[in-house]
From TrEMBL:
Source organism: Ananas comosus
Pathway named in the protein's UniProt entry: Protein modification; protein ubiquitination
This enzyme's EC code(s): 2.3.2.27
The name this protein goes by in its record: RING-type E3 ubiquitin transferase
Domain U-box, residue spans: 22-101
Enzyme class per UniProt: transferase
GO molecular function, one term: ubiquitin protein ligase activity
Length: 799
């Protein structure tokens, strides 16, 4: 190899033959004929390489021969070996001089543009051979930058060989590692991790693994954009070469010596190193890790892992750490607790008692305001998780977050803090009142503390977050405190004005708008005073404008548009409960509310929209008999007194007048009848109740009941009402169905057809036996129509 390399060097040297020092005979081992590395002298005075003479002694013993000098064959009395230090030093000096010259030749060969790829490969191989024996010689010869430059070669073979050589010269030599890490070589090596050639990836990750053993290079490797992400990907790959996976894993382990790298690993999904440092590190390290953790954006499954692994430690730091450590920990807990599953883990780990204790602390143990805000944020997340907080004790007693004293403390704290904490604590109450089991406790606490007025005042807050949270809270408690809220809101035009301002905002439909309209929708619809006040402040004009805009596609779809539309319909429907006022009737006519509500009844629509629309149509339909335009009676003449009155065309069959949907709210003219009938087999009983209520207005005694029956018959509505009676889903449906069926059975043809229907008969008997007084009376009349009960009044009349 040396001779071949020398020949190629000479061929590439412009100055011809280069001086080569002579090999002295004393340097050569008589046994191996090779230059000695460790010369030793035996008792005959001859010198051999240590390894060679020891081998000779073993062979003599193994073959049963006497120990003798290999050259003189003289028997040896001793096997003592005396190191020849002077000779070894001379050999070392000679070797170093020649290696330096050979390395210089190799260096010039690698730098020469005239060198072939094979020349360069042989030169690199020579460097490897020297490096095995004397790695510092490569450093001293200045070859590392040159070899690093080959990484940018266009030859795959040359690049691969350069990666291999750099790894070899870096082994066990920190100076060489530092030399390789100079410049942008590490960045170039990282790029190889993404190459399509497996061999290059394998060699590159092996080199990085070796370099990462140097603590000073760990930060530099981690500082290359994407380096840690690529390594994390390789280490977790199931399709990559197993050697690459293992080397990538070892490299990442080495890189953990640098805290900045640990943060990057966590950012790229490798969180365990950070958690280990957090659990086992010094207080300073724990602080750093907590700060990192608080800055990360964690996936939900990772939040659960962190909560399970480090939750107790974080809670301990939150409770006993320095202010700075507690702040960092609360920031981390704020993110971890934002997932339902991880929040439950933290609750099980005992976070709730110290968290609430810190929030309510006063005096010297009081938290700084910014920490209280963060604590309130964590508590808000925990509450939003839906955990059973009634079962989580806050102290050694039986107090929980739902206990009246705790609710009172929350309400007091809300009223005596700044906007940031107000917002968070209002969110806590929003979360608690979102739970069907917890809301009653909060409502009880609000009532007993007299906090309704102060909570309502928050809807006028300047800070949007506080205002939105207050509206959401009031919306949540409104089904349980509708009367109190109606009195408080109705007593102040400014409060109502704020709610209306939120609804009328034209910057899109957001959470604030949905909460505001939802609050108004829950207020008692029979409160005519509140309805009049809303009308006076222009609420219904705002509502109908918004509703028509959504219907006509004028609003961008988002997750709030459904609840917002439901609220609009429910608020608009409350106007129909107060139609005694002429201005309300005029408004309903102006906006053709009968047609609007009829159009909102769709089979696949929102249940709440259908229910509110059906009840609104019931109220409007009850006004039709008063609003229909009656035809003028014909003028009486002598001739007309003896002739039949002329018929008037275009009259409503039900109301016997001129009807329109807009002017008289007629169900027939608004084309609502078929839509209401379609709702009678709805899965939601409340929808059936509302639809049946609206249809029953066609059978009222103040209109043409017979024509009403025929209208329902033509619309195929008779059978669904009989079915509703038979199914007997709720008491209200039973009452209304019995009432309607009795009117159907006044028609002899229907009565005869139904008299043989056992199911109808049984349903009427059930109503007769178990209904309230009025329902029993109506059921009795219906049973008489189908002759299931004797009609004694008819018998008496006949007699």
């Amino acid at each position: 190899m040396a001779e071949e390399f020398e020949e190629n060097c000479e061929n590439n040297d412009r100055h011809g033959e280069i001086y080569q020092e002579k090999v002295y005979d004393a340097f050569v081992c008589p046994l191996t004929k090779q230059i000695m590395r460790d010369p030793v002298t035996i008792e005959t005075g001859y010198t051999f390489d240590r390894e060679a003479i020891l081998k000779w002694f073993r062979e003599c013993q193994n073959n049963g021969r006497k120990l003798a000098c290999p050259l003189t064959r003289k028997e040896l009395r001793s096997t003592d070996l005396n190191p020849s230090i002077a000779l070894r030093n001379a050999i070392d000096e000679w070797t170093q001089r020649n290696e330096a010259k050979e390395l210089d030749k190799a260096h010039r060969l690698l730098l020469s543009s005239a060198s072939s790829e094979q020349d360069a490969l042989r030169a690199l191989e020579f460097v490897v051979n020297v490096s095995w024996k004397r790695s510092r010689a490569v450093y001293n010869g200045g070859l590392i930058p040159t070899i690093s430059g080959l990484l940018k070669s266009g030859s795959i073979t040359l690049r691969s060989k350069a990666l291999e050589v750099l790894r070899i010269v870096a082994e066990e030599n920190n100076e060489n590692k530092e030399d390789i890490g100079a410049g942008d070589t590490i960045r170039t090596i990282v790029k190889f991790l993404l190459h399509e050639y497996i061999k290059e990836r394998e060699l590159a990750v092996a080199l990085l693994c070796e370099l990462s053993k140097s603590e000073s290079l760990c930060e530099k490797i981690g500082g290359v954009d994407g380096a840690i992400l690529i390594l994390v990907g390789l280490a977790s790959s199931k399709s990559e070469n197993i050697v690459v996976v293992e080397r990538a894993e070892h490299t990442l382990k080495n890189l953990e010596k640098c805290e900045k790298n640990i943060k990057q690993m966590a950012e790229n999904g490798r969180l365990q190193p950070l958690l280990t440092k957090l659990l086992e590190g010094s207080p300073e390290t724990q602080l750093s890790m907590a700060l990192y953790l608080g800055e990360l954006i964690l996936a939900n499954d990772v939040k659960v892992l962190v909560a399970q692994t480090a939750g107790p430690t974080l809670i301990t730091i939150m409770t006993t750490g320095t202010v700075q450590a507690r702040e960092a920990t609360l920031k981390a807990l704020n993110q971890i607790s934002s997932n339902e599953s991880s929040a439950s883990v933290l609750i099980e780990a005992g976070i709730l008692p110290p968290l609430v204790r810190d929030l309510f602390a006063v005096g010297c143990g009081r938290l700084p305001t910014r920490l209280k805000e963060m604590s309130a944020g964590v508590l808000s997340n925990l509450v939003a998780s839906g955990a059973d907080l009634e079962a989580v004790p806050l102290d050694d007693g039986d107090q929980t977050l739902l206990s009246e004293d705790v609710v009172h403390n929350l309400l007091h704290l809300i009223s005596n803090t700044g906007p940031a904490i107000e917002h968070r604590l209002l969110q806590v109450l929003v979360g608690l009142t979102s739970s069907p089991t917890a809301v009653s406790y909060i409502v009880s606490g609000i009532k007993s503390s007299g906090a309704v007025i102060s909570l309502v005042q928050f809807i006028d807050a300047a800070h949007t977050d506080v205002r939105v949270a207050a509206l959401k809270l009031l919306h949540n408690i409104s089904p349980h405190m509708s009367i109190e809220l109606a009195e408080t809101l109705g007593g102040s035009s400014s409060h109502l004005g704020t709610v209306l301002d939120a609804i009328s905002d034209n910057n899109g439909i957001a959470e604030e708008q949905a909460a505001a309209i939802g609050l108004l929708a829950e207020l008692p619809e029979m409160d005519s005073g509140l309805t009049k006040q809303l009308f006076k402040q222009g609420a219904f004009r705002v509502v109908i404008t918004k509703l028509l805009s959504i219907r006509d596609g004028g609003a961008r779809s988002n997750r709030y548009i459904g609840p917002f539309q439901e609220g609009l319909v429910r608020v608009l429907s409350r106007l129909t409960y107060c139609l005694a006022e002429p201005e309300h009737i005029a408004f309903a006519k102006e906006y053709d509310l009968a047609t609007v509500f009829a159009g909102l009844i769709e089979a696949n629509g929102s249940d709440k929209v259908i229910i509110a629309s059906a009840f609104a149509l019931e109220n409007l339909s009850q006004e039709s008999k008063y609003l229909t335009a009656k035809p003028e009676p014909p003028k009486c003449t002598l001739l007309s007194c003896f002739s039949k009155p002329p018929s008037v065309s275009g009259l409503c069959r039900i109301h016997h007048g001129f009807c329109t949907a807009k002017e008289s709210f007629c169900l027939l003219e608004s084309r609502a009848v078929e839509k209401l009938i379609a709702c009678l087999d709805h899965t939601n009983e409340k929808v059936v109740e509302a639809a049946l209520a609206a249809l029953c207005t066609l059978l009222d005694d103040t209109v043409d009941t017979v024509e009403g029956v025929y209208v329902l018959c033509e619309a195929e509505g008779i059978k669904p009402i009989f079915d509703a009676l038979i199914q007997n889903r709720t008491e209200i449906i039973q009452k209304r169905a019995v009432w309607a069926v009795e009117r159907f059975l006044r028609i002899d043809d229907i009565a005869r057809e139904v008299s043989g229907n056992q199911s109808v008969g049984s349903a009427l008997v059930e109503a007769y036996r178990n209904g309230d007084y009025r329902t029993r009376q109506i059921a009795e009349r219906a049973l008489k129509h189908i002759e299931r009960l004797p009609d004694f009044s008819a018998i008496a009349a006949q007699s």
